[in-house]
Amino acid sequence: MDMKKNVMILLGILCLAECAIAQKTMTPPHIMIIPDMIYCKSQGYVQSINSMGVDEVIPDYEKAMTEDPTLHSVLTQVAQLITDRNSSIVVVDLLEAINSAKADAAMSIANAGDQSETVDESIIRNSGADILVKVNYDLLKTGPQYQVSYTITGTDAYTNRMFAPIEGVGAPSSSVNPALLLREAVFDRMDAFLTKMFSYYSNMLKEGRMVSFDIKVATGASVNMNTKVGEYTLREQIDDFLYDNSVDGNGLERVKGGNTFLQYQGVYIPLVTTIRGRQRKQGAKDVAQKLVGFLEQNGIPAEYKIRGLGKVNIYIN
């Protein structure tokens, strides 16, 4: 009986050790908490732009954060609820991402850079977030009582894919402070939200994160997609490169192509990989740099542009 007990204790210790190792090696998610587009539209925090010939309405995060102090308090409260439960989560400050995007834009204009990226895409790219937590809320009044209705949605920062939404209406209160009302309303539901968020993130660690690649051959370039580069065509070389830098080639089958372009709808790249001899978190920019380097090693000049976090444009000159 004592031997059986000792074996059980030993197994328990090994299990705890494995869990500790797994937690140590699992890089924590980076999240950014932002107002939902629904909130931005309802409050007039939007701007109209023409993106590559298409008229779009996008959120104006800078206007929202500088003109709406209540919104700032609400987003801060949501961040506090999250970090109180799990301090390993890295919360990226939206205002810092906005300032980084503005500095980026000024440098790009000064250097006559590609202006195809929209303002909101630039903010998200500068955040480096894995997950966006989108918040929408409304203050309701019934007689002397106030309630807050809310929706909080987890969103993949690379693909804009939504998951783990929670919504509801808080209990009536004499308080008129939306931040406090929201805290009370979502307090008991935040654990379930974070469980779903970590499940999504854990799955991303296993299956990779989806990145789209739009590869174009410029007019006047000395090559096209059917040009032989070594043993294979340029198209085949790019396909093989992305296979080697993806999780089991997942997503490569969703591709459109012609003599001067290749468009991969979404290739699943590893979230963590070896970069310069160290295990690091990997983004679309890392794979784009490697692909451009690979092309240039084969005598093919190329450059890249990242839109948002999950869209890579490669230009072969």
Task: Give a verbal description of the structure.
- With 317 residues, the protein is an alpha+beta fold.
- The chain folds into two domains: 28-205, Rossmann fold, CATH 3.40.50; 208-316.
- The chain is 42% helix and 31% strand.
- The strands form five sheets. A five-stranded mixed β-sheet has the order 4-1-5-6-7.
- Helix 4 (69-85) packs parallel to helix 7.
- The longest helix is centred in the N-terminal third of the chain and has 24 residues, at 2-25.
- Mean pLDDT is 88; it is low at 3-25.
Summarize the structure.
The protein is α+β, with helices and mostly antiparallel strands and 317 residues long.
Write the layout of secondary structure elements.
Layout: H1 2-25, E1 30-35, H2 37-43, E2 46-51, E3 54-59, H3 61-67, H4 69-85, E4 90-92, H5 94-110, H6 119-127, E5 131-142, E6 145-156, E7 162-169, H7 178-186, H8 190-207, E8 209-217, E9 228-229, E10 232-233, H9 234-244, E11 255-257, E12 261-269, E13 272-275, E14 278-281, H10 284-297, E15 302-307, E16 311-316
Parallel strand pairs: 1-4, 1-5, 8-16
Antiparallel strand pairs: 2-3, 5-6, 6-7, 8-12, 9-10, 11-12, 13-14, 15-16
Helix pairs in contact: 4-7, 5-6
